[in-house]
Amino acid sequence: MIVAEQKPFAEIAGFVADCNKILVAGCLGCVAVCLAGGEKETEILAAALRMHRRLQGKPLETVTYTATRQCDPEYVDAMADLVKDVDAVVSLACGVGVQYIAERYPDKWVVPALNTRFAGGSVAQGVWEERCGLCGECILHKTGGICPIIRCSKSLLNGPCGGSQYGKCEISKDVPCAWQLIYDRMKALGRLEWLLEYQPPKDWSKSRDGGPRKAVREDATI
Amino acid sequence: MFEPRIVAFCCHYCAYSAADLAGSMRLQYAPNIRVVEMPCSGTIDARVILAAFEDGADGVYVAGCLEGDCHFLKGNFRAKKRVHYVKKLLDDIGLGGERLEFYNLSAAMGTRFAEIANEMTERIKNLGPSPLKAKEVAGA
């Protein structure tokens, strides 16, 4: 999932300082799972903004709506009635959702309430870690299901480097060396010989290098 | 004389029973407390605390079991963390986190329940009415 974190409250309040009525729009996708922008967080933010503004003597009216997903036009369309008479939309979606609302409602001031952090998953209740670098060409079959692109600090394809010490990366004693993890796992799987194959430089044209990416499935288009 | 309105979210297994005990013991305590019974302090939600303040409470506290004694094992620890999160949010909002507190007590602590009620009432009296209410009155 996409993991996001809420921006500091003062920053969000500043975005809508000149507004009288706003739509606070949550998303039930990834950001609800990582407890940053679901229904609950949407209600909390709306209440906090209302109280903050009342204390400033400039009451703020809020409307809340939590979309099934903000990254699908049909769900963004569904909030049209709510968007029309507000001064701004505060989106608690990832950067994708914010842009979808901004594109769909070009005359509206649309602001982000979250900082979109990374593609990852939860490792414990309330803790999330990055797991995928979105590089566009998966090599997990060669590395025992451990991604060196995002989990090795240098994104090495033929690791480890000299900075691997006692299983940890030299950048921090809290960061495991991805190549140590890869080696241990491949050894346990009896597939160490796979690591002998030299990996040529990665083709980064499938990553961000070529500008914004697009995926099309012809059979799914109408 | 300012008489604060304080909402006390009390766990059924400890603080709520302690309130009963305080009553049975004929203890006198500040009448400013409005008790809301909860199945466990761990069910407390930031939205409910904020709603209490938004609707006119001058102070709020959540009372759960003594540490290690939660009927649901960790509910009181979770409640404490959530209360601290909301205290920080109240600071950000400008209302002040000191209007919110978390307490631990057991069902046998009727005297402590009365003490907490008095303690919190005193604290809120010193802080004065919720500035949200003051704004409401000024705006009305």
Protein topology:
The complex is a heterodimer of chains A (about 220) and B (about 140).
Chain A: E1 2-6, H1 9-15, E2 21-27, H2 30-33, H3 39-55, E3 61-67, H4 73-77, H5 80-83, E4 88-91, H6 95-104, E5 109-112, E6 114-124, E7 127-132, H7 148-151, H8 178-188
Parallel strand pairs in A: 2-3, 2-4, 4-5
Antiparallel strand pairs in A: 1-6, 6-7
Chain B: E1 6-11, H1 15-24, E2 33-38, H2 46-54, E3 59-64, H3 75-93, E4 100-104, H4 110-127, H5 131-139
Give keywords.
heterodimer; A: 222 residues; alpha/beta; Rossmann fold; 2 domains; 4-stranded parallel beta sheet; 3-stranded antiparallel beta sheet; 8 helices; elongated; B: 140 residues; 5 helices; 4 strands; 46% helix; globular
**Overall outline of chain A:** elongated
Tell me the structural class of chain B.
Answer: alpha/beta
- CATH fold-level topology of chain B: Rossmann fold
Note the gap between the termini of chain B: 21 Å
Helix share, percent of chain B: 40-55%
Question: Pair with the most extensive interface?
Answer: A-B, 16 and 18 residues
In order across it, which strands form the biggest sheet of chain A? 3-2-4-5
Question: N- to C-terminal separation of chain A?
Answer: 27 Å
Query: Uncertain spans of chain A, ≥5 residues at pLDDT below 50?
Result: none
Oligomer: heterodimer
**Rg over alpha carbons of chain B:** 15 Å
Number of helices of chain B: 5
Averaging pLDDT over every residue of chain A, what do you get? 96
